[in-house]
Each structure stands twice: as C-alpha cells, then as structure tokens.
C-alpha cells in the first residue's frame, strides 16, 4: 500500500482487530456511542467516525474522527487518537468530508 493509498473498510474490522475495551457494549452504552459503518485504512492506521451524546446535561450528539493502530490493535494514545478535537463536528457528513480531505492531503 503506497503512502497515499486509502483502503475502504468496515468498522467491524476495526472492532475485530481492537484488543481492548473501547468497543465493548457496556462502554458504548455508557458513553452513548455510535459508530459510522465506514472505516479507512492508511499506513497501518484505521480511521473511523464515532459519535457520543451526553444525556446527563442534555447535549446534542456530536461526531469525532478516531484512529487506531491496526497492528497493535489499540487506539492511539488519548491525546492523539483523534484528528480534530473530541466532538468537533456537529454532523456526520461534515466529519466524513473532513476525514476524506485529511486522508487525501
């Protein structure tokens, strides 16, 4: 795979390669998380979009671009597992547009 080559994949494969608790049903339920079904693989890093909604303070659902090291099976460190800030995007469409722009830059 060349440096710019992007492989379209499924978030189910990201879950398959992950070796921690990030995708556990209890964790997803606690954070009210949802995942876009699409994932992208570039240079051994999976990129995907998650969304969370904070029901305790009645916040809207917001979207985050995440990344995970496929070989290690772990999310990158907390401070750099996102491309933009946590919950930076108001819509999934905007998050996906920015993710594809990032991958193609």
Description:
This protein is of the alpha+beta class and 105 residues long. It has one domain (7-103). Helices cover 24% and strands 30% of the residues. The chain has helices at residues 11-17, 25-30, 92-103, and strands spanning 7-10, 34-42, 45-52, 62-69, 74-75. It has a 5-stranded antiparallel β-sheet with strand order 1-2-3-4-5. A hairpin with a 4-residue loop joins β4 and β5 (74-75). It is globular and about 40 Å long. The model has no long low-confidence stretch (mean pLDDT 89).
Domain count: 1
Strand content: 25-35%
Order of strands, widest sheet: 1-2-3-4-5
Q: Low-confidence stretches at least 5 residues in length (pLDDT < 50)?
A: none
Count of helical stretches: 3
Q: Please give the share of residues in helix.
A: 10-25%
**Helix-and-strand structural type:** alpha+beta
Rounded to an integer, what's the Rg over CA atoms?
13 Å
Morphology: globular
Q: What's the β-strand tally?
A: 5
- First-residue to last-residue Cα separation: 16 Å
Mean pLDDT: 89
The biggest beta sheet is recorded as: 5 strands, antiparallel
């Amino acid at each position: 795979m060349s440096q710019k080559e992007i492989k379209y994949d499924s978030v189910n494969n990201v879950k398959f390669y992950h070796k921690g608790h990030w995708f556990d049903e209890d964790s997803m339920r606690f954070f009210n998380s949802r995942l876009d079904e699409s994932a992208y693989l570039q240079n051994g890093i999976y990129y995907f979009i998650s969304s969370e909604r904070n029901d305790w303070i009645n916040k809207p659902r917001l979207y985050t671009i995440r990344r995970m090291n496929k070989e290690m099976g772990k999310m990158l460190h907390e401070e750099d597992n996102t491309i933009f800030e946590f919950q930076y995007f108001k819509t999934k469409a905007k998050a996906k547009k920015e993710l594809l722009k990032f991958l193609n830059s």
